[in-house]
């Protein structure tokens, strides 16, 4: 059975962040994910989860200076110490929030450098950093995820293709380092969604969805999500499916797709 998690960075923006938990619970979600918890004390978020009966299913490591445009530290040469601190901080929150997995965003390639050389340096840093993160996470029973992100939304993002992610997972070789498979990004960069799900299934630690190309509700646009849910069911996927889209209008009114598929209460 597909289990939907509400992405509180994108859904329920009609409410202040802390009020989005109750809104998601009232709409029938049982899990939540969001970009970052760090603006709040972990206990505050933990109490909200307990009050609303929601599970925390995912959040990201501190990404560097987000406001200045940074999008993760994992592949950035020279930022290894900061990356290691970010792993410790994320795992501290993961334990309080009882969150089984955290996403380590790869970061951006420098626009003004020789791309071949920069890629090689980022790749080497990425492998070492991810190995470190996975080993630290394993000590406290958590997984670390990597996610290919499309370069139209995030120009220069280091990890952008499904095959690149699979090669990285293999090279790092840590069993708790897994794939965050965002079907929205995959459709834009690689397509062939069902075959990618099937071939990469063993590596998948989390799935995310959105309509393509506008990143609105999953029943809007070029991707036929009922077929992808059937595929995940056929593969006996037991993880969460994060609803990481920007509602076209009111979040709750836009959840009809989930109710129609029997994935959210009517
Ligand atoms: O943008 C996405 O698709 C994500 O899942 C990331 O968490 C963004 O940071
Ligand atoms: Mg995503």
From TrEMBL:
InterPro entries for this protein: HPT_OtnI_isomerases (IPR053398), HyI-like (IPR026040), Sugar_Epim/Isomerase (IPR050417), Xyl_isomerase-like_sf (IPR036237), Xyl_isomerase-like_TIM-brl (IPR013022)
Top-level class of the enzyme under EC nomenclature: isomerase
Annotated ranges, domain Xylose isomerase-like TIM barrel: 21-260
EC number: 5.3.1.35
The keyword Nucleotide-binding is assigned to this record: no
Family that this chain belongs to: Belongs to the hyi family.
Designated name of the protein: 2-oxo-tetronate isomerase
Organism of provenance: Halomonas tibetensis
Higher taxonomy: Bacteria, Pseudomonadati, Pseudomonadota, Gammaproteobacteria, Oceanospirillales
């Amino acid at each position: 059975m597909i289990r939907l998690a509400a992405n509180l960075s994108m859904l329920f923006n009609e409410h202040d962040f802390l009020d989005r938990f109750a809104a998601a619970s009232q709409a029938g979600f049982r899990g939540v994910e969001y970009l970052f918890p760090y603006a709040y004390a972990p206990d505050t978020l933990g109490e909200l989860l307990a009050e609303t009966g929601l599970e925390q299913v995912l959040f990201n490591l501190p990404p560097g200076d987000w406001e200045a445009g940074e999008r993760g530290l994992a592949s950035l040469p020279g930022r290894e110490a900061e990356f290691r601190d970010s792993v410790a901080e994320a795992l501290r929150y993961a334990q309080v929030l009882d969150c089984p997995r955290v996403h380590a965003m790869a970061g951006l390639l420098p626009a003004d450098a020789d791309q071949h050389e920069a890629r090689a340096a980022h790749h080497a840093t990425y492998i070492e950093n991810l190995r470190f993160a996975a080993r630290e996470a394993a000590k406290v029973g958590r997984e670390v995820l990597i996610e290919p992100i499309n370069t139209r939304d995030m120009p220069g993002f280091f990890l952008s293709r499904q095959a690149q992610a699979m090669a990285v997972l293999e090279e790092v070789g840590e069993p708790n380092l897994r794939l965050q498979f965002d079907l929205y990004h995959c459709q834009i960069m690689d397509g062939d969604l069902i075959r990618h799900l099937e071939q990469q299934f063993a590596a998948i630690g989390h799935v995310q969805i959105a309509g393509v190309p506008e990143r609105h509700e999953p029943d809007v646009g070029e991707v036929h999500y009922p077929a992808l849910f059937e595929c995940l069911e056929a593969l006996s996927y037991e993880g969460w499916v994060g609803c990481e889209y920007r509602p076209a209008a009111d979040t709750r009114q836009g959840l009809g797709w989930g109710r129609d598929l029997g994935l959210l209460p009517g």
